[in-house]
Amino acid sequence: MIYQAIWEVTMVVHFIVILYIALGGYLAWRRPKLIWPHLGFAAWGVVQLTGWVECPLTALENWGRAHAGARGLAPGGFIDTYIEGVVYPADYVWLVRWIVIAAIAISWAGVVLRRAQRGRSHTSTA
Question: Which residues cross the membrane (predicted)?
Answer without folding.
Answer: 6-27, 34-53, 92-113
